[in-house]
Structures are given as C-alpha cells and as structure tokens.
Design brief:
Number of strands: 0
Helix content: over 70%
Structural class: mainly alpha
Radius of gyration: 17 Å
Number of helices: 3
Strand content: under 5%
Number of domains: 1
Distance between the termini: 24 Å
Shape: elongated
Low-confidence stretches: none
Mean pLDDT: 78
Length: 73
C-alpha cells in the first residue's frame, strides 16, 4: 500500500501496529488456553502458561528495546 500511494512509512506507527497485533494474538491464545486446557489436561498443566508468558514478555521487551535504539518511542 505504501508503494502504491508513494507515502513515507511512519515507522513508529508501523511498530505500534505490529505490537498491537502481537498483543491481540497473545490474548486470544491465552483465552483459548483458559477455556479448554484446564479441564482437558488438568489444572496442574497451567505451569506451561507461565513458560509461554515468559517468552511473550521476552519478545515484547526485545521489540521495545529495538524501538528505543532506533528512536521510535
């Protein structure tokens, strides 16, 4: 789309949209896990959710640090 209209991309806005999409997908996945996982696999298995959340936090921290280094914040 940017090439079709010959617009200069706003990198801060693009990064914000990407982070918003990642957060939406993460919340959707978390809701799916909560709805079905506890009854199907047992409540002890929610320990895997903590591991998954650690990867999400690490990924978000990396993205925000990259944004700060490029002056997009």
């Amino acid at each position: 789309m940017l090439q079709a209209y010959e617009l200069q991309p706003d990198l801060a806005e693009l990064l914000g949209d990407a982070n918003t999409a990642k957060l939406g997908l993460a919340l959707s996945a978390f809701g799916t896990i909560i709805c079905g996982w506890g009854e199907y696999l047992g409540w002890w298995s929610f320990a895997y959710v903590l591991l998954w959340a650690a990867f999400v936090v690490r990924d978000l921290r990396r993205d925000f640090e990259k944004a700060r280094l490029h002056g997009l914040r």
